[in-house]
């Protein structure tokens, strides 16, 4: 078994282990194509030590096969059989250790990174253990509880269901159609503003009702913002949390002003209702075609 002893200090900052200087990283896989040509794979490693005493490991696979000599008749392309002979497919990098910790990229305090700081705060509870270059990465624990971080070209994840009804997750759950769910911000009548047909000229709804219900829908967003403001006091990074809430409040005021400015104009309201009618008709025709196909 090949092995390599790592050593890095904060003063080093970065240490690179190359296959040229470390035989254990050179040609970890090697097959003879013929007497003069080989198919081989080598590894480059890089250790980075940060000021907060975190150690990052980069792993790079290098196709170290015999080089392809190109000319007018032998060029470097995937349609060239010579090139294909020296390609490796389905290669996977898998790093495992009981010492693997949550990965966090080193962020600077510059203003250019403000958006990155906001995203890092919003997704602070999501644990990342690696970043891929020209591939993706995934991670899991095996039956013995050992963490594995590995390359993945077709990553997959199960997404939670999404519904258009805004719900207040700070309140007790309620039963709806036999399912226990958080209480919706809007009652059944007010939630009609989320339906294409109700917003279109195909319904008897008045323009005033549409305007009032859409403003009520936006007010439910304002109520949610207030629950987030109340929640901030329990967080560590209050400054970033307040900034995110402030951005939400700016968005609320912008959307409210747009609804009032746009839908208090009768000609714009007419265009709005025609648009919703068109979307409803398209949806109806699609569902009709799907039902006919099933039958």
TL;DR?
With 295 residues, the protein is of the alpha+beta class. The chain is 33% helix and 21% strand. The chain has two domains: 14-97 and 113-152, no CATH class; 167-294.
| Uncertain ranges | 106-111
Give the N-to-C terminal Cα separation.
61 Å
Domain count: 2
Summarize model confidence as the mean pLDDT.
Answer: 85
Describe the largest sheet. Answer: 4 strands, antiparallel
DSSP strand count: 9
Helix share, percent: 25-40%
Overall radius of gyration: 29 Å
Discrete helix count? 6
Describe this structure in words.
It is a single chain. The chain has helices at residues 81-85, 114-122, 196-199, 207-231, 238-263, 266-294, and strands at 14-17, 29-32, 38-49, 55-63, 94-97, 136-141, 147-152, 167-176, 179-184. It is 33% helix and 21% strand. It has 2 domains: 14-97 and 113-152, no CATH class; 167-294. The strands form 3 sheets. Strands 1, 2, 3 and 4 form a 4-stranded antiparallel sheet that branches. It is built from 6 helices and 9 strands, in the order ββββαβαββββαααα. Helix 4 packs antiparallel against helix 5. With 295 residues, the chain is α+β, with helices and mostly antiparallel strands. Mean pLDDT is 85; it is low at 106-111.
């Amino acid at each position: 078994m090949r092995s390599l002893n790592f050593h890095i200090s904060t003063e080093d900052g970065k240490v690179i282990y190359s296959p040229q200087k470390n035989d254990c990283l050179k040609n970890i896989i090697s097959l003879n194509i013929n007497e003069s040509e080989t198919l081989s794979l080598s590894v480059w490693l890089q250790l980075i030590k940060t000021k907060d005493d975190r150690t990052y490991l980069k792993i790079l696979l290098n196709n170290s096969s015999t080089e392809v000599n190109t000319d007018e008749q032998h060029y470097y392309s995937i349609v060239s059989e010579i090139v294909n002979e020296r390609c490796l497919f389905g290669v996977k990098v898998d790093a495992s250790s009981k010492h693997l910790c949550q990965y966090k990229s080193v962020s600077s305090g510059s203003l250019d990174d403000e958006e990155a700081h906001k995203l890092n705060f919003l997704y602070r509870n999501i644990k990342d253990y690696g970043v891929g270059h020209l591939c993706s990465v995934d991670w899991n624990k095996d039956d013995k509880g050992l963490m594995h971080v590995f390359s993945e070209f077709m990553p997959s994840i199960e997404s939670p269901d999404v519904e258009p009804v805004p719900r207040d997750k700070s309140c007790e759950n309620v039963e709806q159609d036999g399912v226990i769910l958080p209480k919706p911000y809007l009652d059944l009548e007010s939630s009609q503003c989320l339906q294409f047909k109700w917003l279109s000229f195909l319904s008897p709804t008045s323009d005033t009702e549409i305007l009032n219900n859409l403003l009520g829908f936006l007010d439910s967003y304002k109520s949610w913002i207030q629950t987030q403001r109340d929640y901030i006091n329990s967080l560590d990074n209050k400054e970033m949390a307040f900034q995110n809430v402030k951005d939400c409040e700016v968005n609320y005021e912008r959307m409210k002003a747009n609804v009032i400015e746009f839908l208090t104009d009768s000609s714009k309201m007419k265009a709005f209702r025609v648009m919703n009618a068109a979307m409803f008709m398209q949806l109806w025709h699609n569902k009709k075609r799907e039902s006919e196909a099933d039958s």
